[in-house]
Amino acid sequence: MYEHFFQCPYCWEDISMLLDPSVSRQTYVEDCEVCCNPIEVTPVFEENDLVGFEARDIEQ
Under 8 Å CB-to-CB from 41, ≥6 apart: which residues? Predict the structure, then answer.
């Protein structure tokens, strides 16, 4: 597992998530641990290294 820190797109608090590098590109929704709003998370891995990460709100 890979721990990644970033800012929540809703409350702007610094949070962390555990990411699974066994899948090179994935998109899923996880709730913010501070404000509980849903965040669409898209990590991209190459050879178990995180090379891209996007966290965005899903309430457009």
Answer: 17, 19, 27, 28, 29, 30, 53, 54, 55
Please list the residues that pair with 40 across neighbouring strands.
29, 56
Strands 49-57, 38-46: pairing is antiparallel
How long, in residues, is the chain?
60
Residue in the structure block whose two tokens are 């050879």? 47
The pTM of this model reads: 0.85
Which residue is associated with the tokens 């090379």? Answer: 51
Domains of the chain, residue spans: 2-57
The per-residue pLDDT for range 3-32, each reduced to its tens digit, is 999 999 999 999 999 999 999 999 999 999
